[in-house]
Amino acid sequence: MEINRVGTFTTRWGESLVWDERRSRLMFVDCGTRTIHWLDAGDEDPQTFHAPSMPTGVVPTTDGRFVVVMEDGLYLFDVDAASIALLSRYPESLGGRCNDACADLDGHLITGRLNLGPEEGSAWWFAPSGEWRLLDDDISNTNGPNVAVLDGEMTLIIGDTSAHYFAYPYDPPTGRVGPRRVFGDMDALPAPVDPSAAAAGGPDGATFDRDGGLWCALFGRGQVVRFTVDGLDRTIDLDVVNPTDVAFGGPELDRLYVTSVAGEPGTVDGGLLVIDGLGVQGRPEPRFAV
């Protein structure tokens, strides 16, 4: 296994990695500078689009554009045309703005409230028709949403930064979930190797591999871990204190990219990392049905 930095650029708060397999393009955002970035295959210097407000989530669509989670709603971003347009305002009952997002396997969107403290928050389902539906009113800060078939059951994963990665039985057409359970148990993690890392850490961005393993960036712990239906499976220590998101990319979807938050000068904090030699492959990112 090898861990390397991609290029020499630094993001203030890198987030929301997505690999577009149609264009061999890696998308991500910098929340701290309100910018959307992308790297075409082989590039080490990202191209940049300045967003009208802070972007916190990026989801590919069936027509090649991207849904971007912004301050006042969801927007459709066309990379090639360098244009962005409102898709939907947030429902008033959400009580704020959203954070991370993903598409399910049927083309709906899962997102949830951005909340930087252990306070009231919520997770939501959004349909191409424009309908919003509450999924869980007890998620303080939504991170790393993903949908996969696990043990024969359609399953929604939602990470709560103040708690764990939760799993729900999930029905995509109706946006309804069953009772939640802990899927990625943060209390079961061993202490990080780096003594400066916070032992508690927090769930952040996540992605599934083809074998049903959930790869998770643990903010504050300097680690990427893999959970399966049987529990904690792998732990990888990084040279960044605050990894924020992960995504499989490359022609074979076997390279794991990691974004991070800037830190002390002279460190790799804020850099984009890539992990090779994991021995697993990702899956194409599910797309929102435009």
Strand coverage percent: over 45%
Architecture, according to CATH?
A: 6 Propeller
Poorly predicted ranges: none
The total count of strands amounts to: 25
Specify Rg, calculated over alpha carbons.
Answer: 17 Å
**CATH superfamily (homologous) name:** TolB, C-terminal domain
In N-to-C order, the SSE pattern is EEEEEEEEEEEEEEEEEEEEEEEEE
Overall geometry comes to globular
- Annotated CATH topology: Neuraminidase
**Could you name the CATH class?**
Mainly Beta
> What is the percent of helical residues?
under 10%
Structurally, the number of domains stands at: 1
Average of the residue pLDDT scores: 95
The largest sheet is: 5 strands, antiparallel
User: In whole angstroms, how far apart are the ends?
Assistant: 38 Å
Number of helices: 0
Pairing-aware structural class of the strands and helices?
mainly beta
Structural write-up:
The structure is a single chain. The protein is 0% helix and 49% strand. The protein has 290 residues and is mainly β. It has one domain: 6 Propeller (Neuraminidase). The strands form six sheets. Strands 14, 15, 16, 17 and 18 form a five-stranded antiparallel sheet that branches. Strand 20 and strand 21 form a beta hairpin. The relative contact order is 0.17. The mean pLDDT is 95.
